[in-house]
Amino acid sequence: MSHNELWYEDFFDQWYLKYWIQPITAERTHKEVDAIIRFLGLTPECKVLDLCCGQGRHSLELSRRGFQVVGLDLSETLLEASRRQAQEENLSVEFIQADMRRISYENEFDGIFNFYTAFGYFKNDDDNQAVLNAVGKALKPGGRFLLDYPCLEGRMVDWKQQEFFEYDDGTIMLHEMIHDVFDQKIVNHVLYITKDNQRHRTGFTLRHYYGRELQQCLQKAGMKTIGAYGNLDGDKLTNRDIRVLVVAEKTSS
Ligand SMILES: C[S@@+](CC[C@H](N)C(=O)[O-])C[C@H]1O[C@@H](n2cnc3c(N)ncnc32)[C@H](O)[C@@H]1O
User: Fold this and answer.
1) Is the Cβ–Cβ distance between 61 and 86 less than 8 Å?
2) Alpha-carbon distance values, 171 to 3, 131, 165 (Å)
């Protein structure tokens, strides 16, 4: 079974919200936000864009800490959850629905971040490049971009083609990850089976970018890579790390 190349229009639904996002603890998000602030060098008056903000866990926490935040995402389901939470806490985060390839800002943000694997979604490389071009345009000169992305070399150390998770409500999720080496993509098949035997099949495909490729793409988008780190603490990236945090700075106006 293969899924449609527009998978990203369907995958981020109520199932995703319930089984991928809601299990993330507030403590983990707080640590990620500490790191986002540090990597982007944010000070309280800074304006920040959470690119592909999802249910807004980082945007909301940054707003609680006094930053001016815009959260952008395509999924109406996730944006609705973000807006509801912001309203409940009386936070003034601006949540907007848009495609990450077509963000309309110019010289607007001191920092932009894209967290928890929201890059490489498009089959066509020009579309993935368009995301970085839009980031380059939306940053103020000297502004920084943080990309949190899987590190394939580290994952290869203990590659699991299949995994399964059992949730507290009795739902089981089966997840198959196929690495298409030559095409540099990871094809993910996901099947949820609920306690009452309801089945939901879905999936996603990530175009994988190696470090040097990514640096070239960032450069094309008017940014210079200033570091690549293997964890939230900012330790230098190694071939054992399963994520890479890339920090780039806008060089041109
Ligand atoms: C893996 S989630 C990350 C969510 C969030 N950054 C977090 O850390 O919880 C990826 C997000 O990208 C969004 N997305 C997918 N395709 C998109 C697109 N073309 N334009 C904008 N957002 C998109 C999804 O709706 C989803 O919220």
Assistant:
1) no
2) 22, 35, 8
| Cα 93 to Cα 70: distance, rounded to the nearest angstrom | 6
Q: Using the atom order of ligand 1, give the atom closest to the CA of residue 114.
A: 6
Q: Could you tell me the strand order of the sheet in which 68-73 lies?
A: 94-97, 68-73, 47-51, 109-114, 139-150, 243-250, 223-229
User: What atom in ligand 1 is closest to the CA of residue 32?
Assistant: 8
Residues near ligand 1 (Cβ within 6 A): 8, 12, 21, 52-54, 57, 73-75, 78, 99-100, 115-118, 121
Distance 53 CA to ligand 1 centre (A): 6
Ligand 1 centroid distance, CA of 102 (Å): 14
Joined tokens for residue 68: 């001016």
pTM (global) more than 0.70:
yes
**pLDDT tens column, 108-162:** 999 999 999 999 999 999 999 999 999 999 999 999 999 999 999 999 999 999 9
User: Which atom of ligand 1 is the closest one to the Cα of 57?
Assistant: 9
